[in-house]
Amino acid sequence: MSAIHDIEHLLPALSRAEKAQLLKWVVQDLGDDFPGIESSPAVCGGEARIVRTRIPVWALEQSRRLGVTEADLLRAYPSLRAEDLANAWAYVRAHGDAIEQQLREHEAA
Q1: Could you tell me the residue ranges of all domains in the chain?
Q2: Is the pLDDT of residue 63 over 90?
Q3: Backbone phi, then psi, for 21, in 5-degree steps?
């Protein structure tokens, strides 16, 4: 019996909340945790950035650590929306090691 066959038989027994949790896990597993964040090898060296922009997540995090407020970031980057910052902070929480590495690399440059 395959795993997908098992899931097909278990699905009707799940509550709506359990189905929602299952869906969340599937989306996370597919790597689409952060729809407002993307990375492409040809843009910003492949570093995670805000969609529609060339603003890397590490740069926003660096600014935040230096005491720049969200309001200041939104004024400095007119293409940013508050939702973009929320996505960036969530990305930083989930990918802290990668962001730390990028911060170190850019400090050394």
Answers
A1: 1-32, 34-108
A2: yes
A3: -65, -40
User: In this predicted structure, what is the pLDDT of residue 33?
Assistant: 60
53 near 80, Cβ under 8 Å? yes
For the residues of the chain, what is the DSSP string, one character each? --HHHHHHHHGGGS-HHHHHHHHHHHHHHTT-S-TTEE-BTTBGGG--EETTS--BHHHHHHHHHTT--HHHHHHH-TT--HHHHHHHHHHHHHTHHHHHHHHHHHHH-
Q: What is the pLDDT of residues 38-57, one digit of tens each?
A: 998 999 999 999 999 999 99
Do residues 102 and 58 make contact, with C-beta atoms less than 8 angstroms apart?
Answer: yes
Q: Quick check: 1 pLDDT over 60?
A: no
Question: Among 3.20.20.150, 3.40.50.150, 1.10.10.10, 3.30.300.180, what is the CATH number of 34-108?
Answer: 1.10.10.10
Question: What's the rounded Cα separation, in Å, for the pair 74 and 63?
Answer: 12
